[in-house]
Amino acid sequence: DIQMTQSPSSLSASVGDRVTITCRASQSITNYLNWFQQKPGKAPELLIYAASSLQSGVPSRFSGSGSGTDFTLTISSLQPEDFATYYCQQGYSTPPTFGGGTKVDIK
Amino acid sequence: EVQLLESGGGLVQPGGSLRLSCAASGFSFSNSAVSWVRQAPGKGLEWVSSISGSGGSIYYADSVKGRFTISRDNSKNTLYLQMNSLSAEDTAVYYCAKPLSSDWYVAGYWGQGTLVTVSS
Questions:
Q1: pLDDT attached to residue A106
Q2: A25 or B104: whose pLDDT is higher?
Q3: Contact call for A91 and B103, based on CB within 8 A
Q4: Which of A53, B49, B56, B119 is the most exposed, fewest CB within 10 Å of its CB?
Q5: B43 to chain A: nearest residue by CA?
Q6: How far, rounded to the nearest angstrom, does the alpha carbon of residue A62 sit from its chain's CA centroid?
Q7: Residues from chain A contacting residue B107 (CB–CB below 8 Å)
Q8: Which tens digits make up the pLDDT trace of A63-102?
Q9: At A82, phi and psi to the nearest 5?
């Protein structure tokens, strides 16, 4: 199975900050990388698919980049509604696997 | 609007069985793969099982292979997960998920989840 490693596992930030979360795959997954946001008690929501494609309805302050083994999710200006846990997930091979998550909370 | 509504969760004893259902609407169910994804309390996400639109292709995570069975009834627009030989490690919220498009592993739509608790 492909292992997905996210860093950091948690971070504290302020409204307006630029936030970057990284995700590393244990082998090349080309661009088969998705990002999800999850708020407490809610289902995950797809933010980014295919490494850099923004899901419909997702604010443009979210962006994704990377290919191969190293990927990044960037929030350009953190908003109050962005405090949540973020997961990366590879869809390159079966089984699809998730990173351990990055919890973003208020500084 | 795509809607996925899970049901069937609850408290079950170790070694017991449970069947989850996911009622789908707002899309052509028979033409879409669907999946189950779970999340143990306070933990991350784990892909459990996927099934093609026709039901002819199925995937299981190693952790549930031989114990869980995914199936679908396209006449009822409903997905199922039969779970047998349950253990405490199966305690989780189980989500039904639909792909964004033809790529099975881009879960663009999720249900609200149903909680399964395995405990004596």
A1: 86
A2: A25
A3: yes
A4: B56
A5: A100
A6: 9
A7: 34, 36, 44, 46, 89
A8: 999 999 999 999 999 999 999 999 999 999 999 999 999 9
A9: -90, -5
Note the pLDDT tens digit of each residue in A12-44.
999 999 999 999 999 999 999 999 999 999 999
Nearest Cα to Cα of residue B113 among B99, B98, B93, B97? B93
Q: Which residues of B touch A98 (CB under 8 A)?
A: 44-47
Nearest to B70 by CA among B59, B81, B78: B81
Choose among B44, B104, B113: nearest Cβ to A101: B44
As given in the structure block, the two tokens for residue B93 are 């919220």
* Terminal-to-terminal C-alpha distance of chain A: 36
How many helices (DSSP H) and strands (DSSP E) are in chain A? 0, 11
Q: What is the pLDDT of residues B42-76, one digit of tens each?
A: 999 999 999 999 999 999 999 999 999 999 999 99
Q: How far apart are CA B84 and CA B76, in angstroms?
A: 23
In chain B, which residues have their Cβ closer than 8 Å to the Cβ of A49?
Answer: 100, 103, 106, 108
Which residues, other chains included, contact B63 with Cβ-Cβ below 8 Å and sequence gap of 6+? Answer: B46, B48, B89
Query: Contact at 8 Å (CB) between B6 and B115?
Result: no
Sequence-distant (≥ 6) Cβ neighbours of residue B60 within 8 angstroms: B48, B49, B68, B70
- Measured in angstroms, the CA of B38 and the nearest CA of chain A are apart by 10
Which of B44, B46, B105 lies nearest to residue A91, judging by beta carbons?
Answer: B105
